[in-house]
Amino acid sequence: RRGLLGDARCGRGEGRVGYGPRVAGVMSMFGFSKKKNDGSVKSGSESRKALSTGRSSKSLARNSTALGGSRVSSGRRRNGGYDETDYGELFDEGALETNAEEGYDSDTEAEVGEKYVRRPRPVEGPVERATDGGFLHRQPCAPSLIPPTGHHPAANAQSKPTHELQLDFVYGYRAHDTRHNLHYNADGSIVYPAAGVGVCYDSNEHAQRFFTAHTDSILCLAMHPDGEIVATGQAGKDPSICVWSSTTCELLAELKGFHQRAVVSLSFDGSGRFLVSIGLDDDHSIAVHDWQTRRMLASSKGDGNRIFNAEYNPHDGRIVTGGVKHIKFWVMEGGYLIGRRGVYGKIGAASTILSIAFHPDGSTLTGTQSGTIYQWAVGGEQCLQKYEALHQGPVHDIFVNDEYVVTGGKDGKVHFMTHYFEIAFTVDMGRVVETITDSQGKPLCCYDGKTPCVKAICLQGTSLLVGTKGSEIFEFDMSTETSWRVNRRIVTQGHASCVDEKTRSQSCELKGLTTHPFLPQFVTAGDDKTLRVVDMYQRRQIAVRNVSSKARSATYSPDGDFIACGFQGGGFIVFETATGNEVCAKKHRRETISCLRFSPDGRWLAVGSHDNFVDMYDTRRSYKRSGVCKGHSSYVTHLDWSEDGRFLQSNSGDYELLFWEVPKCQPVRFPSSMKDTRWDSWTCAVGWPVQGIWPKHAAGADVNATDRSKDGEVCAVADDHGLVKLFRYPSDVGRGEYRGYLGHAPGVSNVCFSHNDEFLITTGANDRCAFQWRHYETDEGDEEMTSEVEEECLTAVEDYEDFAVSNQVVKMVVVGKSGGIPVYAPADALDAKPHPEIPEGSGLDPGSRLAFLPCAPSIFAPDGYLREPDALAPCMEAAELEFAHGYRAHDTRDNVFYTARGEVVYHTAALGVVYDRETNTQRFLTDTPTTETVTGHCDDILCVARHPTGSIFATGEVGRNPKVLVWSSDDTKKPLVSLQGFLKKAVVSCTFSRDGALLCAVGADHNHSLVVYRWQTGTMLASSKGSPEKIVSVNWSPFQDYVVTCGIKHLAFWSTSPFESRKAVLNKKGKMQTMLCVCFPGPDTTVVGTQDGSLYLFKGYQLATNMRRCHSVTHAVFATRDTIVSGGKEGSVKFWTIDLMQCLKEVSLSHPHANGSCIKSLDLANSMLLIGTRSGEIYEMDTTSYSHTLLLQGHGYGTIWGLATHPSEHQFVTVGDDCTVRVWDLGSRRMLLVRDLGARGRSVAYHPDGSQIAVGLAGGGLVVLSADSLDTMHAKKDREEPIHEVKFSPNGAYLAAGSHDNHVDIYDVNKQFGRTGVCKGHASFVRHLDWSSDSTILQSVSGDFDAMFWEAPGGKQIAFSADARNVDWGTWTSVVGWPVQGILPKYSMGTDVLSCDRSRTRTIVATGDAFGCLKLFQYPAHKGAAARVFGGHSSKVTNVRFTFDDMYVITVGADMTVMQWRLVL
Fold first, then answer.
1. Strand order in the sheet with 263-268
2. φ/ψ of residue 1360, rounded to 5
3. pLDDT tens column, 766-787
4. Strand-strand pairing, 624-630 and 714-719
5. How many angstroms separate the CA atoms of 617 and 627, rounded?
6. What is the pTM of this model?
7. How far apart are CA 469 and CA 178, in angstroms?
8. Alpha helices (H) in 978-1124, listed in sequence order
């Protein structure tokens, strides 16, 4: 035998025998062939390829070993391996085995061919200040690198930025070329790899922790038996293995130096001491490590074929490896690894092993590419059993516990099988992804219609994790066999991978990225032909859109309404953000669309392609191409627009920088003419302000993308070698220092800041992950907003859109023409149909809107009624606003001022108020709804500014297109000028220049823009973007021409010519936080109040003094030449020396009628100090004696709902969401009593004798108070929903309470308010109640406008509404009914009118509507009746009541204001 097979040898314990090269060569040369097992003949070449040998069961039993040292057969050891010399079993059973016919699997083929080749990182060189030696100065762009006029590089331009990044969330999961990498740890967190990061996901908090010590993609992950320690292996030239804690994410050990190219598999042994690893070198080497001592104990060549898995058998300590036609069982003996091939025998054929697990009996289970599972002998290498066709295609993972064998495959099935491989039930991932949809019902995780390929599974308790090749992880509740169908959720989602069938390699990349212009959302566009929308705050993918080609670029329109997406094939698509509907699709190029960008005004869309052109499209002409920018000699990489939209700059692949004039698309011949251009964004990697981001010896595309932060402080860079870098901006140096962050695999493709710079989003081309980084300044830290600051800065901004009258959009349609002018009506009103059960003899007026409401069958006219001839004419009475109780301060500040004459100016609702302290009277700047000219505001006023003369004021409002009105406090009938057009959403603050000629205002649009007007002529002089976050205050220095803005982590000093900002420099003396208020003690000196209660004193724009923690929150500051006054949340007023070194006096505000003392405004005139508080009080303090008096008072924050007038005195009572009940006196125009209810009030009523007040609460309770002291007399709680209406009967014997749970409860007053009856029958909440004059019948109206009648006190319903037609009603407060048909506007569906009251003389009916108007009609009000309309409220008038003598009308509203109107003829 040695003569014939002299060169045959067993390769280092591989258990494999082959013909020697001489013999094999001779045999193939002469055409000899070997016989197959079935007797057929193989060719020599086929035989060489297929030949594999194995040991007989006898030999295997004789030579089996285990960890710890069984005897090993004699032989010679070589290179750490084992060479067998006993050839006696060469042709035993199983020595020559065939290969299984498994077919072609693209995923496996691509995984086998992957080598993870990396381009070397260039030498960056030293930091250089001079730009002449920089990389870009040696490129074609050098002539265009021109600094702005008068610019000098900052002293620290080459230094690291003060800003930093912290990884916040990772969207994605690596599964396309790996498997079995998904685990629960001991804490229940989910551990998995994504890009180069080990992720620990806390499902309870929906938060992630990260292990970031790897420098390349993590390809494998193993969990320690203790459930805490994790081992991960990466790709790379010298790949490392990291062992780390999944609870602290701290590195415990790093193992490197042996493997090459990559570490593809890891596994801990049963004790957790040893760790086995597989490399990607040519021999696919295997190594065993003692990870705690960081020593490699043994190693060996694995196989020439690719090995996918290595697993420690927890039962016998052997190592099992599986791969392409490969399965081996390994033991370690004396520092050597000995491997023996598995013997299929007659049971099967050599297969590609993709998954390995261990049966509870100690046997080994292996899943194959063909869908078969093999079971191998305990302690041996023989194949015992074959389970075929369990999956249609590869079995990628197997999980075994005491109950089930769980398998997952490419067919998308997760089978739960008994230990005897009988399928108990199956989780079908194809059905799962079809049922998970977004808010519009569209699929959230389906890409191309293919079934998700399962790559990893993990079962812990009743929770199942499934990881798919599409970079998605699902978690299921498996408490029952069907619970997974309902109780499932997505843990994370990323872009999917795909295989290029031509190259048989992974080809998908992720390159497209854009952030929403004003929402916390971003969109990624990838080669998986999807666009994905992610919410940064929710940290979830909220929508996905499939497109027809590989997506390579994306951009939002400036208004956020559209997204444009560029394709690899040369076309692009534009679709609506809200619906996903396609707007247009164009294709004028054949090469990749690498970049797109809308102009700042949204008019133009620039599209850059790899055809070297930039195409210009006109969005107003259905995206018609208007021009082509020609001139680049390589593919276009980046585009940016100038702020005015007149110019475009572009980069190309050969480092060109060109400028274009739009819309002509002509190149700018002289780049120097563009040096002072202000760019709306900066994403170009080539240009003057980004010279320092390039390595000195860059080669190729080392910088893939850049983005300038919205505040212009830093520039983020996507590095081609896996780093995310942060540089100062501008980086106008040869090479700048940076802060670098690991996490991505090599090839970071894109970077983009969020709209407010809170986050930086980065994408990896090859790892297909999106990283969300939290962006902050080094000294900034996280800021916890107090409740009132959050209300002002965050919630209020949402309210501006949600509740502003001008934002209440109703869809209208044309219903005809009048005088050639189209007539419109609400679309929903036209869809309404008359009630089908209107009886004969109904009292409905012709054309009455009540015919369309549920109350229609209940409308009957009284017998014998005759309409007066002038019944439709306006009533004779008019309402004059006499006094307004209220002051808006919950979301505004610095809004109480003295006039030159000593009067007080402030605002509430839509009123500008001038208050005379001497006479206790008010004058108003108010809107007149019936005139077309502007006489006042028609929506909430948010700010007021005083002119240097002290008699002229400016006020700004909320609205879609808000106004700034300038008016005189001496004559409030008409404003001097109205400024409108530029600012959007709201005017949150305004200020006059020191000479009074100019007015600066800031809006609540997405950029919180600033504008400067010459107000007397209405000319807009300048404008600029302010900040991504809310600016709460803008102030003009009275000593110099500069403006200061402050807001959420914002403080900027603005020069006026040009109108440009400079960020405050804190010099480590303070931290950037929410800045709230500003004052100016002298020239070049500014004092700022902060969220943490400090006072910052600036000299110029640099912080000079920080007086820490003066208040809990510093809300207001005021300065004279010798004193600074500050006010805080805790209600204290402090007087300081001009340098803030000494506090001269501290005074605490208090008043028995005040419900709070958070100070929001200060104004000092002579020795008198005005103080405005958040709870609606205005105080005046004498600074000589420091005594203070309460001037004015209103309700605190929240809607005022309940209103009732005294039955015999000029008093009324109100309740609201500020949890107080208040009693007011009309004659003195002051509040008499107040009590904190401890709960929100919704309704209130006086007893007929005026001795008691009943209050209905939002929590369903009912409280009866003494009218004299507001002490509690009775308390009831029979409901859980709000008590929306309460009403005493005219005889005072009963109290009716209507609730939101659709019932009316009747209580007996004389029997300790015992309940006598319940009125049941409404289908909606009860909103209005009225008693008959004799107290025997009760009328109720519900939220759906159904009217019902009840017998009192039993609560029995009167079946026929016609029986109540002649009832004399003691009051009428219902908005529907026969006598009030005319109060509803044309086409109304009832929701326009919210409240109603009939005068005591029964001649007038007053209404309050949803638009802030008080209307007076004749009573009864028939269809078509004319009204007198009065403005003043800014939003819903929630209640209206006449006084007992009809001398006054009182209105309350959602604007927190009580208005006292006098009726006049």
1. 263-268, 274-279, 286-290, 295-300
2. -110, 115
3. 999 999 999 987 765 556 666 6
4. unpaired
5. 7
6. 0.71
7. 9
8. none
